[in-house]
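Why should sequence recovery work at all? Because a backbone constrains its sequence more than one might expect. Tight turns favour small or flexible residues, buried strands favour hydrophobic ones, and helices have their own preferences. The token representation captures these environments compactly. In the example below, the structure is given first.
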């Protein structure tokens, strides 16, 4: 048995997704020597410097924080080596760890990834799983190597994806599931029961970071496909179409059976939502947003903007 208080640990993470795992390490009782996170960056309209969420939690827990611009810098590697960590835990840090760092801790570098590996390696596994219409996803802890999410798997936790669940909602659930998976990983490590399993390369898939252009809706596709795109890109970067020359963002949708109307045509518009014909079926849109405006329920949106039947979206 290994006493968790003797495991000198360094945590690397940046966004809110990493917070439950960091808090879990604190509660588990490992010897947290330092937290590494991305540098403070300008945020919001005022472009004021803002600290990453992980830095804020680390400071509250009185854990030393380091924010090197580049992990590959020899001085950063030397500094990390001086901390002599037994374990490095990584969650959405934002930089690839070089081999020089991967080889420092005796228990290795363990990453918490938001998919059931080897499916959806890469930066946007949550978004891609929903866009692809997957019904099940989860988290995986893995031993890191020099590849991109290619290391041996340790612990998996699966969960169903709700038919109307958005990427934002799934993100929050998987963050908590990541904490559970990491705690189980530590329990197995401390008890000598931690075993690894190689990933099957033939089953791997990739989920690159999505951008605004990925959110452009093709109304020729089925209502279910468009629905998955909308919820997979909510809250960011958002799915959108064109309305009389303006960008119109869509949210909170539901696919319906429907048999007529050219793709992109408004076939109904009332308090329940805006119904748009797709290549197969109709899409009920319950929330809409114009540039510079707030996202509004359909009933409120229609009070300020008429959408007569036959209006074509996407043009």
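From this structural description, the recovered sequence reads:
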């Amino acid at each position: 048995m290994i006493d968790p208080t003797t495991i000198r640990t360094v945590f690397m993470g940046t966004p809110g997704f990493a917070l439950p795992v960091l808090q879990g390490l604190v509660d588990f009782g490992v010897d947290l020597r330092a937290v590494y996170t991305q540098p403070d960056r300008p945020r919001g309209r005022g472009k004021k410097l803002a600290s990453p969420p992980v830095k804020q939690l680390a400071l509250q827990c009185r854990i030393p924080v380091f924010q090197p611009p580049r992990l590959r810098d020899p001085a950063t590697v030397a500094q990390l080596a001086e901390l002599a960590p037994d374990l490095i835990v990584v969650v959405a840090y934002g930089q690839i760890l070089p081999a020089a760092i991967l080889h420092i801790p005796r228990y290795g570098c363990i990453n918490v990834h938001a998919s059931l590996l080897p499916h959806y390696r890469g930066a946007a596994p949550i978004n891609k799983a929903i866009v692809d219409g997957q019904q099940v996803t989860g988290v995986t802890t893995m031993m890191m190597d020099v590849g991109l999410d290619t290391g041996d798997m340790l612990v998996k936790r699966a969960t169903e994806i709700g038919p109307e669940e958005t990427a934002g909602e799934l993100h929050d659930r998987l963050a908590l599931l990541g904490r559970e998976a990491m705690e189980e990983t530590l329990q197995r490590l401390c008890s000598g029961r931690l075993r690894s399993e190689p990933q099957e390369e033939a089953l791997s898939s990739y989920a690159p970071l999505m951008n605004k252009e990925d959110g452009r809706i093709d109304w020729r596709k089925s209502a279910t496909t468009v629905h998955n795109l909308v919820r997979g890109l909510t809250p960011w970067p958002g799915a959108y179409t064109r309305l009389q020359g303006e960008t119109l963002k869509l949210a909170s949708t539901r696919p319906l059976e429907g048999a007529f109307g050219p793709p992109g045509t408004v076939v109904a518009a009332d308090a329940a939502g805006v119904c748009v014909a797709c290549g197969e079926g109709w899409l009920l849109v319950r929330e809409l947003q114009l540039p510079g405006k707030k996202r509004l329920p359909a009933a409120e949106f229609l009070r300020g903007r008429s959408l007569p039947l036959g209006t074509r979206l996407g043009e």
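A few observations help interpret the result. Residues 4-203 form a domain with the Rossmann fold fold (CATH 3.40.50.170).
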